[in-house]
Amino acid sequence: MAALLSVSNLSKRFRGLKAVSDVSFEVPAGAIVALIGPNGAGKTTTFNLIAGVFPPDEGAVVLDGRPITGFRPDQACAAGIGRTFQIVKPFGELSVEENVLVGALAREKSLAAARSHARTVLRRLDLDGMAQRPARSLTLPDRKRLEVARALATRPTLLLLDEVLAGLRPTEVDQMVEVLRDLNRREGLTILMIEHVMRAVMALSDHVVVLEHGEKIADGTPAAVVADPRVIHSYLGAEDV
Amino acid sequence: MLTRRAIILAVLLAAALVLLPLVGDRYVVSVVTTVLWFAYLGQAWNVMMGFAGLLSLGHALYVGLGAYVAGALYLYAGVVPWVGMAAAMAAAAAAGGFIGVLGFRFRVKGVHFALLTIAFAEVARIAFDHLTFLGGSGGFFLPAHDPGMADDLLNLRGSPVMFYYVILALTVGALALARGLLHSRLGYQWLAIREEPDAAEASGINLFRLRMLAVLISSALAALGGVFQTFYFSTLFPEQVFSMGRSIEIILPAIVGGTGTLFGPILGAFILTPLGELLTFVVDQAGMDAPGMKQLFYGAALVAIVVFRPDGVWPWLADRLGLVRRRGEDE
Ligand SMILES: Nc1ncnc2c1ncn2[C@@H]1O[C@H](COP(=O)(O)OP(=O)(O)O)[C@@H](O)[C@H]1O
Ligand SMILES: [Mg+2]
Q1: Residue A38 Cα to ligand 2 middle (Å)
Q2: Helix residue ranges, H only, chain B
Q3: Is residue A165 included in any domain, yes or no?
Q4: Which terminus of chain B has fewer Cβ atoms in its 10 Å neighbourhood, N or C?
Q5: In this prediction, does ipTM exceed 0.90?
Q6: A150 to chain B: which residues are within 8 Å by CB?
């Protein structure tokens, strides 16, 4: 498979601290790739570099053969990147539907077309029952689903999910895993997900990239990665697998 | 969405406003003219703060620029206000655009952006104090209208009733424009920026472009209010026109009524201006010499709102009277 996303030699320092250091990996078109690693490993920073929150100190990001290094977030979105935030950022005073509508407006110029697309996405994520509630009134699990819905509404070619399963109950995790699998299988949506819930990582991903202290320490199939001594030592040993 | 009751109420209110000069005396008409002027200016300010989340504490700058530009064009070049207003709006938008570029390019945020807006209004106040060809600190004056003459709408010289209808039309126009904006693609994207700029940007919104649009529209609208001011009052003093106090007077109705709502600025102006007038009247009647009384009242009103109704009076009232179908929505 051709790589949809290709990240090469990405580095980012925050005053002295090397948050991401010479990281390279690829996300094949149509794949689900998981990005794992302990807290502070540089996973979210990697997302921010891909999605244009800040430019990398070194390295390049290529989406579908097109360099997008140093793009602003809105340009990255236009190029096809949809992202969620680990610390959710709903538009609190807007309704759930309006939150998703804003996402849909990224591609739709007409309000009516955007609204209809937003409603489809809301149903997809089982949020249609609370469409008219203000987003600030949602519980954390619902807010996480709203993050996914809003990102999905921008019609991304690559969806970046930052710990969308964290804080969800097991049944909710299973539901979300089903939705993501379905999006991937049926619509061919490519997903790069940061995830701590190893059960979901094993169930969903074709490929796993492991970061530690900003560096990539492993990269392979889920089975190969969990068997890697360095990964076990640095990360999995401390967690319930 | 508005309920049926709200529509009936709006029609009644509109009819009352249209008929007011036929039944009300001169004093009532002049008070309501001031009310509508502040309602209009509050609506203009609301586009920046209420819609796009940009706090401007220097809106007097745009009003004042509009006032002086249209006034000077009329007095020195005979340009009728309806043409001069284009130049007035362009001048204010240029000033707003300059502040916007400075603020947004250098990522000046929140309170610091507000300070920037104050600074420019202060600079204008001092500059206009020294612009002798516009009267400087001594004031700028338009020749008064001869009461014996008929209303001249083209040159905006006429009776208080004519001005009343002009500002009523402007206020209704601003309301319609604000409503159109709020319910457009642009409006939703502004609200997204106001609520959560990072997430808005990730949703494909160009923050710089949309914030600039908000400033340009808001400052141009404010300038139109300034044009009205010049021709209605016929006098402009930089110390008043560009003062911090004026900026606060512009902001207060919108905050009291409900920032970000469509009817907030109008309701707020109808609450504050008459109360301020009444207070001045009572203090005068009592023979007291108490300058700053109105400011004190505005301060107290602000404290009361911040403490008891931080969302403003309109959302609460609309809910109480059953004027909106859904909570948390302005319509
Ligand atoms: N905007 C920022 N400014 C300064 N330091 C940051 C910033 N973002 C992340 N960091 C630091 O970079 C390191 C990696 O953080 P992050 O990418 O959030 O890790 P992860 O998502 O893997 O838990 C941490 O030490 C964090 O404190
Ligand atoms: Mg993180």
Answers
A1: 9
A2: 4-23, 26-46, 52, 60-77, 81-105, 110-130, 160-182, 185-195, 197-202, 207-233, 238-241, 244-257, 264-285, 293-308, 313-320
A3: yes
A4: N
A5: yes
A6: 199, 203
